[in-house]
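Two proteins follow. First one:
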Amino acid sequence: LGAASCLWKGATGIGTPRSTLSAFLPLIQLGLPSGVQPRSCASASMGGRGVGLFADEKSSCGLIRISGIMAFTASLVLFGVYSAKSDLWQQWQPSLAPKVDSALRRAPIAEAPAGSDVDVQAAANYTGRYIFVDLGANRADSLWVFLRRPGSKFVFNFSTPDDGRQPEDAEIFLFEANPLFNMDLVNAREKCAKEGINVQVYPARPVHTEDSVVDFYVDDKNWNVDFWASSMNPESDGVRDNFHKMRLTGVNMANFLLERFLPEDFVVVKMDIESTEYQLIPHLAAHSVGHIIDYMYVEWHDWFGSVSNESRVDAAAAKTALEAMGTIFPDYNSPAKRL
């Protein structure tokens, strides 16, 4: 504003001392037309009241008056905008504060850094999930056994948590490779859903050591024993004479368990997979899955002639390794195949 005032006085010749206006000659020179040079001398055209700025007074004094007026006007506009903006902000800021505060209250709270008091408290309050994983679910026979339903094909008491939770409180995962049982599994899930029991089914999904397409040999002859001979092992007893081969998508069981469950969870696994346990148990041990499995109920098909001595030794060593990680192997031998 001071510069604009001096430009105004220089343009009009009103009360502008020579020393003041001369101090702004560099500023004024920036806006001069090409070829016009300032000078300090008396200006007849300005009535001797100020300082002449140009060699050609008549042609240039009009220009400096216009330039000064424009600069002064621009300064006033800028000052007015700044003042108005400042006044508006002062009026708007109090009304904005509640909105900002409300938005902050609705914003999600960032997770606390690892090792904070929040993490410690959350860990102390975590009771763990109750999980039942059925590998080789058949017609959902072992599901009803697990739930202790009257009329189940056989009776067996699977382990439960010490905190009093019952099988109906568990999250249940059913895997069955034989596609002949697909609708039985879907119907079982629907029935449980109506009772508020959380059941997820994986029909026509062989449990395996990797996520890949595998050959599965379906027994579709022995209907009286629920097609018990179906297996991924083409040399399995009963498969050689009573099967047809299908291509199904296998599930990497170590990854499935590790990606979903924690050591704090209470995890029960039942395994009845027609001799494939001799490949799967070493696979689970190699991936340290024993740290998250509490109880593993395995029906060992060691009476299958197709199981080699080497496979038996490897599976026994893997079982020992899993036990060292904390997994308990209770005796389990389902009578379902004999009914």
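Second one, unrelated to the first:
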Amino acid sequence: LWEKARSIAREHAPELLSSVEGKYVEYLKAGGGGTRDNADKLVGLDVVAGLNMFAERGEWDKCMAAAEKQGGPVLVKYSALYAASLLQAGKPTNALGVLKKYGAPAVSQNYNLYRKMMADLFAQPQPLAYATLAELREVLLSLLAGIARANDAGVQSEFETYMLVAHFAALRAACSDVAGMKEIAARISISLLRHTDIIPADKAFFEAGMQAKACGWESIAFVMLNRALDLHDAIEDGNFDTLDNNEFELTDIPMEVPVPARQFLTSAKREEVHDWVLGVSMDQQGRQTLPNDARGCFEGALLDPKTQRAAPQCIVSGHPVLRHAAPLNKCAEHKEDRNKLVL
């Protein structure tokens, strides 16, 4: 009947066509006819209403196909809604795929979405694959180009930091299982401890400790894994006030960071780490401490806490470049690390 009414109005009373189609749109929105193709019909009459119906039903393939035809702000809106729905469902890797496919524009209403995606990706218990991290790096690089074009200086530094974290995490994933590259992977994990506002602190210390342990760096491994245990217990107790930060006074590792929503270590893994830390503490007569460099601060620190002077950061390992530096834009590279990576 509706098609007939529209046809009559079109042929004999065109001045009434918009009114008839308006009533038809209301009918479809209200679920008139009880058919699943209402949204398909709506898109041809009221694009936003049709897209909203697709989104409400979770028919995202149809929603995005229609939104892509519209492009512009419509595509921006519905790709963000799609990504947000995936984050809510606990699928940050899929959300990243949506932004990779449809773009991550530099619009202020999307910035919290990007922040949550970063947090959710790095909070996952399983290691992120290199392909995922490379995709994240590409999305953030595109976003930063948009931020630069928009001259949005208020968020540029923040998203440059996200980009740096994604870069180092991707490089670590690429190096971790390659013979001769485990030391670079371990140094990257130690460098990422500066970013425990993005990576959950207990996870970051565990990863740094385990990779240091794999390299035979017992003192670093002991301090980092002991910290991971302390954080694990603090999260369980809901109290970070009792943490002893003395071991980190000569580092630039932040101590005031967000409390992770949940513990990273399983009970079995916690016991395994606890047994190793206890064994080292009983076997060694001296105190296990972090190694210092010629500056008299932790060898992995960019910022010297005593002088407040910052060394250039190696773009390969994230460690300070104190000698054999090859200058790069905003960073540097340690020639020995660069050579290992290239060779």
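SUMMARY FIELD: The longest strand covers residues 325-327. The chain has a mean pLDDT of 85.
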